[in-house]
C-alpha cells in the first residue's frame, strides 16, 4: 500500500486562537500546486528578471509566502493551502497569488534576503511597489493589483507597514511600472 506515502505533508493551520487543525495534502496535489506557483514565478520573472533561478518549496508556517536564501540560492516558501485556495479561482482572476510571488521576488531583486537581513517598512513598501509594477505589466487593473493588500492589517506591525501605506505603494508601482522596475535604490516617501 502506498496510501501513507501519498499523504506526506501535514499542514498545521493556526485556528483563531485556541486550537490548530491539521490538514493533509496529497503528494499529487502538492506537485500540482507547486507547478502552478512555478508558472506564476516564471511569468513574474519575465517582467522582473533575476540573475539566478528561484527555488520553491512548501512552507507550512507562513501566511502566504516568504523569501529567503539557503545554500547560496534564492528561495520562495509558499503556503500550499493558501495557494490551493487561490487555484479554485478562474485562471484570469488569481491576482493575489501573482502579487504575493511578485512581492517575494521583489525582496530578492532588492537584495533584502542577502547578508544581514534587510527588512523593515521601507523594504516592504519597495517590494509592494515592485509588485504593483509587475501586476500592471501583466494586465491587472488597479483594484485587481491591490486586492491582496486589502485583507492586511489596517495598523501594520513592527515589521510591516500599515495597510494604507502598502496600498499606496502598490498604486505607485502600478502607475509608473517602468520607473519602479528600473529602480535599485530604496523606497522613499
Ligand atoms: Zn515582504
What features would you describe in this structure?
The protein has 189 residues and is of the alpha+beta class. The protein has a single domain, classed as 2-Layer Sandwich (Zincin-like), CATH 3.30.2010.10. Helix content is 48%, strand content 15%. The chain contains eight helices and five strands, in the order H-E-E-H-E-E-E-H-H-H-H-H-H. It has helices at residues 3-6, 27-47, 80-87, 95-110, 121-137, 142-146, 163-175, 177-182; strands spanning 9-14, 20-25, 54-58, 65-70, 73-78. The strands form two sheets. The protein has a three-stranded mixed beta sheet. Strand 4 and strand 5 form a beta hairpin. The longest helix has 21 residues, at 27-47. The termini are far apart. The structure holds zinc ion. The site of zinc ion (ZN) has 4 residues, from helix 4 and helix 5.
CATH class: Alpha Beta
Q: How are helices and strands ordered from N to C?
A: HEEHEEEHHHHHH
Strand content: 15-25%
The first-to-last residue Cα distance is 59 Å
In the residues, how many domains can be counted? Answer: 1
Number of helices: 8
Structure summarized in a few sentences:
The chain has 8 helices and 5 strands, in the order αββαβββαααααα. By secondary structure, the chain is α+β, with helices and mostly antiparallel strands. Zinc ion is lined by residues 103, 107, 124, 127.
Topology:
Blueprint lengths: L2 H4 L2 E6 L5 E6 L1 H21 L6 E5 L6 E6 L2 E6 L1 H8 L7 H16 L10 H17 L4 H5 L16 H13 L1 H6 L7
Parallel strand pairs: 3-5
Antiparallel strand pairs: 1-2, 4-5
Helix pairs in contact: 2-3, 2-4, 4-5, 5-7
The chain binds zinc ion (ZN).
Zinc ion binds next to helix 4 and helix 5.
Amino acid at each position: 500500500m502506498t496510501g501513507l506515502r501519498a499523504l506526506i505533508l501535514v499542514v498545521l493551520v493556526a485556528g483563531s486562537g485556541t486550537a490548530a487543525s491539521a490538514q493533509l495534502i496529497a503528494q499529487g496535489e502538492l506537485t500540482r500546486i507547486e507547478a502552478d506557483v512555478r508558472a506564476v514565478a516564471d511569468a513574474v520573472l519575465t517582467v522582473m528578471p533575476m540573475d539566478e533561478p528561484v527555488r520553491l518549496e512548501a512552507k507550512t508556517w507562513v501566511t502566504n509566502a516568504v523569501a529567503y536564501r539557503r545554500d547560496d540560492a534564492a528561495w520562495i516558501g509558499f503556503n500550499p493551502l493558501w495557494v490551493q485556495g487561490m487555484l479554485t479561482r478562474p485562471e484570469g482572476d488569481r491576482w493575489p497569488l501573482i502579487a504575493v510571488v511578485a512581492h517575494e521576488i521583489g525582496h530578492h531583486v532588492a537584495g533584502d534576503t542577502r547578508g544581514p537581513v534587510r527588512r523593515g517598512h521601507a523594504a516592504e513598501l519597495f517590494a509592494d511597489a515592485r509588485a504593483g509594477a509587475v501586476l500592471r505589466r501583466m494586465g491587472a487593473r488597479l483594484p485587481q493589483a491591490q486586492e491582496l493588500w486589502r485583507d492586511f492589517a489596517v495598523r501594520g506591525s513592527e515589521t510591516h507597514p500599515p495597510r494604507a501605506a502598502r496600498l499606496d505603494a502598490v498604486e505607485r508601482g502600478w502607475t509608473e511600472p517602468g520607473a519602479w522596475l528600473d529602480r535599485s535604490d530604496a523606497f522613499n516617501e
